[in-house]
Amino acid sequence: TSTVFSHWPWQQWASEQPNATAIIREQQSVSWRCLADEVNALCNLFYHHGVRAGQGVALNGKNSPELLLGYLAILQLGARVLPLNPQLPDALQAQLLPILNIDWGWSSHSSTWPDRVKSLPSFSIEQLSVSNFDTQLMADWSSAQSLTMTLTSGSSGLPKAAVHTPQAHLANAAGLLQRMPFESGDSWLLSLPLFHVSGQGVIWRWLQKGATLVQRNMHPLDRALAGCTHASLVPTQLWRLLEQDADKLVLKQVLLGGASIPVELTERAQQAGISCWCGYGMTEMASTTCAKPADATAGVGVPLPGRELQLVDNEIWLRGSGQALGYWQQGEIRPLSDSQGWFHTRDRGEMRNGELYICGRMDNLFFSGGEGIQPEDIERVLISHPLIEQAFVVPVDDVEFGQRPVAVVDALPGLDLSQLSAWLEGKITRFQIPDSYYVLPAELKQGGIKISRLAVKEWVKSLN
Ligand code: 4YB
């Protein structure tokens, strides 16, 4: 059953279970009472700098205790919060912030903000003075306010900012948690960035249940996971974890998502005692929409309670709980769904045996000698190779065929690229076999949780 909140969730937990552990920071436990006091103190600080309800506040940084407090305090002041990837180029940020009506910027490191964005001071938790909080500063809890903005990772052009209400985040969380057990006493590692919807997904599940959130340095991952019962991981993180000596883990469940999840991966994890859930989600739906306990098939199960799914010409359409109100643009919210409320995902999908399979992004499809090539079909086979962790297939121009596939792989030591075509033979059709193979350069691995396909494409182009 999901909790009904009549107050900001952290305030409600602070009165209902003040001494329960809200957060574990590295090894240190923080109670709900203490967390609420910290949020209040930060509200005080931000308010006295001039932050007001209805304004926009950007938070730039990697996950840290301060960043999370910032996220909660901005909400509690009734302002809109925009978590930003610190790798976002300054020029893009300068273009984006006016469109998103951002008034304030807070950053965990020294950074410059565009002209009309005033900067908020950095602070450390120890400095926050809890004594003089005036509860008048707190906005009323209204779960239906558009308060969070999350940037999408569009393949071209400016990212868009999906706007969510707390209610949508909580409803998304509730839907998943009707399937996946996560109770107070359990602890979920904040294993993905807050500027990505997967990180916010962790926050709202934690708030929904009044459970424990674990905030730690993520390197090495096995150390970060010590004592945690739950984590959200992208497939590459789980591959790396399995390479480490991961037998000290008490992990009950790992929620996977963000990219195609190989059955090989979830089977290896199972052998190491880690139960996996395969999820399919997106920014516009406030993270997970479909999920199932990992099994022998590569599907993502069925829609979670509260969501509806429809395939229209093989395109996945979704609606229901978690859905964003729209994309923020110059003070307005542009709808992202059709008149019936369906969000057209641009993902191609298929139903097999009552289960949804993700085939790939429609925008990634290209043609080679008249044959359609869906890069993900080739990538799925490549990542089933024991030495390949990630693969990208991108088109390169070709005089004879128009375009031809080229593969860029992130591999473990020992992979012989020259053997890959032979290894692929018989596993995919001949015209799908890439013309050449490259090793993914380290410079493309930085940034968010996903490697930009566009960046991979441009890198390959720069070589030819
Ligand atoms: C997929 C895919 C899949 C997404 N197969 N393509 O809380 C979670 O659900 C979670 C847990 C662990 C890791 C990630 C998550 C997420 O939220 C992921 C959400 C996400 O990736 N959002 S996104 O807006 O950045 O990208 C969405 C797109 O990613 C989808 O439209 C798909 O194209 C792709 N994707 N899950 C294959 N299981």
Written account of the structure:
The chain is α/β, with parallel strands linked by helices. 26% of the residues lie in helices and 28% in strands. It contains twelve helices and 26 strands. The strands form six sheets. It has a nine-stranded mixed sheet with strand order 2-1-10-9-11-12-13-14-15, with helices on both faces. Strand 22 (366-368) and strand 23 form a beta hairpin. Helix 1 runs antiparallel to helix 2. The protein is globular. 5'-O-{[4-(2-carboxyphenyl)-4-oxobutanoyl]sulfamoyl}adenosine (4YB) binds next to helix 6, strand 11, strand 12, strand 13 and strand 14.
Annotation field: number of helices: 12
Small-molecule binders here are: 5'-O-{[4-(2-carboxyphenyl)-4-oxobutanoyl]sulfamoyl}adenosine
Portion of residues within helices: 25-40%
Q: What proportion strand?
A: 25-35%
Secondary-structure content class:
alpha/beta
The gyration radius over C-alpha positions equals 22 Å
Q: State the CATH topology of the largest domain.
A: Rossmann fold
**What integer is the average pLDDT?**
94
Distance between the termini: 56 Å
| CATH-scheme architecture of the largest domain | 3-Layer(aba) Sandwich
Could you give the topology of this structure?
Layout lengths: L8 H8 L4 E5 L2 E4 H18 L6 E5 L4 H12 L3 E5 L5 H10 L4 E4 L10 E2 L28 E4 L9 E4 L1 H14 L7 E3 L7 H13 L2 E4 L5 H4 L5 E4 L1 H9 L9 E4 L6 H9 L3 E8 L4 E7 L8 E2 L3 E6 L2 E6 L5 E4 L2 E3 L8 E10 L2 E7 L4 E3 L2 E3 L1 H8 L5 E11 L3 E10 L8 H5 L11 E4 L13 H11 L1
Parallel strand pairs: 1-10, 3-4, 3-5, 5-6, 9-10, 9-11, 11-12, 12-13, 25-26
Antiparallel strand pairs: 1-2, 7-8, 8-18, 13-14, 14-15, 16-17, 17-20, 18-19, 20-21, 22-23, 24-25
5'-O-{[4-(2-carboxyphenyl)-4-oxobutanoyl]sulfamoyl}adenosine binds next to helix 6, strand 11, strand 12, strand 13 and strand 14.
